[in-house]
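pinging the channel bc i need a second pair of eyes. not urgent but kinda urgent?? the chain im working w is below, pasted from the shared doc
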Amino acid sequence: MKDIRIGNAPVSFGAFEATGGPLVPAAEDVLAAIAAGGYEGTELGPAGYLGDAGSLGENLARHGLALTGGYVPIAFSEVHDLDELDLVLDLFEAAGALDARPVLADAGPRSGETDWGRLGEGVARAADRARSRGFSPTFHHHAGTRVEGTAEIERLLELTDVPLLLDSGHLALAGGDPVAALRAWRERIDYVHLKDVRAEATEWPLADVWSRGGFCDLGDGMVDLDGFLAELERSAFTGWIVIEQDVLPGDFTGAALAAKRNRQWLASRSL
């Protein structure tokens, strides 16, 4: 497929918003492993993890990596500010990563009724802020949030004009069909997380999905990844495919090997 770029992310090495402490690997080691694995880019990870405004661009350039985007969780249907979004956009600007995508995601819990009007308004407000600063936002549906499964994603798409980041693993975990979703929502999809998940993980509490290794090597889980890639090709998708294999911190060597295996698996499919 032409005009496709392949990235990875710090979450594949145990560095994401819910982790911390001494087991999280050094950012320099993560960047080196992503580059050595054959990737062209990386997501930001927690704001500041890969470097501050003065060092981020240099750190990325040292490893020949582009910045694909940055995850911004916001409780959209609650009272919220946009400070986290502004921080991520500040880092994009400082690194000269003007094509990086602010990846909006709901941070609200699934308990209780969802106020879809407020959620839609919150997403639109964040999207407007990103656009006013010259960046193109995208929305990431995510397990354990108010926008998780197929019906919720469709509701979000109806309420907003924000493009969609389609995550094959998270949608499968929520009971959705990534191939059918790609076909149905193609006109809104501008970013892809390529991820596999074990079938048995759908029966586990969400915390166990991470602690028990529910996200697995590409091709080892239940997602029809070959069908998904074929549909991507038919749809003439262009942009970033970011491979993610969410893990808890502690086994950096294993995570680096998995990242390399996943890139090799995708290369075997001519990507």
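so The radius of gyration is 17 Å. and The longest strand covers residues 69-74. — does that match what u expected or am i reading it wrong
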